[in-house]
Design brief:
This protein is mainly alpha-helical. It has eleven helices and no strands. InterPro entries: MTERF, MTERF_sf.
């Protein structure tokens, strides 16, 4: 995955990177091997020029308190990876503050391609699903699901049944659980306000 490690100096590159992860990112010794297996490129990055400035950006600009849970982002470029994605969400209508909230809730957004992931999924969300953008602010994990294998099929099933489920209910459930929830919405009486289906039924009645 990262053959450059074989030629990286131990004392000036590898050891400082490991020390940084342990002391400043607060990765535990137990979790360190897993972190490096998932993102070995972390070992080749300069602490002063790359790793530490990226950590500060994620903490101070985005507001991610525990970066140890998303350590792979530390090997990314703030200028070429993070800023363009923040700018993209502003271009499509989110405020800078709301965009940061989305990335804070789901830091993996920084890893997705704008052209191949974010744009097509956002276009489908707005044009075909016709839903409110605030739903994405609350559930940015929407962009982690496959457009062809999960989002489109489940949206079409909801349309056929005349049901509008919230994004988490529609996308996070296993297939059998999702179908069961659809049947509950279609066959039962109006759910109580505390039910996870209340929002969906209310929304559906409003649009019809």
């Amino acid at each position: 995955m990262c053959p450059e490690i074989l030629t990286a100096p131990i004392s000036t590159t590898l050891r400082p990177a490991v020390t940084f992860l342990l002391r400043e990112v607060h990765v535990t010794g137990e979790n360190l091997p897993g972190v490096l297996r998932r993102r070995p490129r972390l070992l080749t990055k300069c602490v002063d020029k790359h790793l530490r400035p990226t950590l500060y950006f994620l903490q101070s600009s985005i507001g991610i308190e525990d970066v140890s849970k998303c350590t792979s982002l530390l090997s990314c470029s703030v200028e070429t990876k993070f800023i363009p994605r923040l700018d993209y969400f502003q271009r499509i209508g989110f405020s800078r503050r709301d965009a940061k909230v989305m990335f804070r809730r789901f830091p993996s957004l920084f890893c997705y391609s704008i052209e191949e992931n974010l744009e097509p999924k956002f276009d489908y969300f707005v044009v075909e699903m016709g839903r409110e953008m605030m739903e994405l602010n609350v559930f940015p994990q929407y962009f982690s699901f496959s457009l062809e294998k999960r989002i489109k099929p489940r949206h079409m099933m909801c349309v056929e049944k005349g049901v509008c489920l919230s994004l988490p209910v529609m996308l996070k459930s296993h297939e059998s659980r999702f179908r069961d929830r659809l049947e509950v919405c279609c066959s039962s009486s109006m759910p109580v306000r505390q039910s996870p289906f209340w929002y969906c039924t209310k929304f559906d009645h409003n649009v019809t």
